[in-house]
Amino acid sequence: MSKKITKNKRIFLDKIIQNKKYSFEEAFLLLKETNFVKFDSSVDISVRLNINTRLPDQMLRGSVLLPHGTGRKIKILALVTKDKELESKKAGADYVGLDDYIEKIKSGWKGMDIIVAMPTVMSQLSPIGKILGPIGLMPNPKMETISMNPKELIRAIRLGKIIFKADRYGIVHSSIGKISFNCKDLLDNVQSFMNQIIKNKPSSSKGTYIKSIYLSTTMSFGLLVDLKSLVKK
Fold first, then answer.
1. Residue ranges of the domains in the chain?
2. Looking at the domain that runs over 21-69+162-229, which CATH code has it been given?
3. What is the overall mean pLDDT for the chain?
4. How far apart are CA 153 and CA 149, in angstroms?
5. Contact of 80 with 117, CB cutoff 8 Å
6. Which of 28, 73, 82, 200 keeps 20 to 30 A from 181, CA to CA?
7. Which residues, at least 6 apart from 200, have a Cβ–Cβ distance to it below 8 Å?
């Protein structure tokens, strides 16, 4: 039995022009116009790439500083040595420590959105690698979540730095702001995000790299958008 479409979703569908590739600005305006929820929805992007993530040289991951942040409160866990605990806390980490948090993670705790770590503690994280790896939380140099200077890394995350990774289907999902953001700020964020996706293109990826891009809010359907509508910077 098919799911019944709500009245608000029907209004959204009625406004969509089938098979149209919207400009990013058109898509943002349409998402704003049809946002019926009472909370400040996230604006999300899904980028389908022509990559095979089963091949080690085509696994795509990285980070980017969104100029206007995501508008979301990120819970940061800093796994650091004792001498870096206080400065990590002052920099904005929600949870700071090492051994106690390793044990909590072993017990199933997942109260963080991102984990930063120092290279000197990485050997101690091997017991939780199989837990954190599949959910994309294992600190990794390619995702720039490992640093000898954790306070600077934490500050960058607080300023709007996000981590991204392609899933097994070659799709990168990310939040790029809130529906309350003005269109210019959303455009700035998506420009920075797409620039980094393009910059991180695996050299072994052949053919059309970006297959499709969709924008949506927390409760909406996706809108197909045209990469060419972004002004190159």
1. 21-69+162-229, 76-159
2. 3.30.190.20
3. 90
4. 7
5. yes
6. 200
7. 60, 61, 62
- pTM equals 0.81
CA angle 49/51/56 to nearest 5° reads 140
| pLDDT higher at 224 or 1 | 224
Name the strand (E) or helix (H) holding 79.
Answer: strand 76-79
- Give CA separation, 50 vs 10, 15, 169, 221, in Å: 32, 30, 9, 23
Select the CATH number that applies to the domain covering 76-159 from these four: 3.40.50.790, 3.40.50.620, 3.30.1330.60, 1.10.490.10: 3.40.50.790
Burial of 161 (C-beta count, 10 Å sphere; 0-12/13-18/19+): buried
Quickly state the pLDDT bin for 1 (edges 50, 70, 90): very low
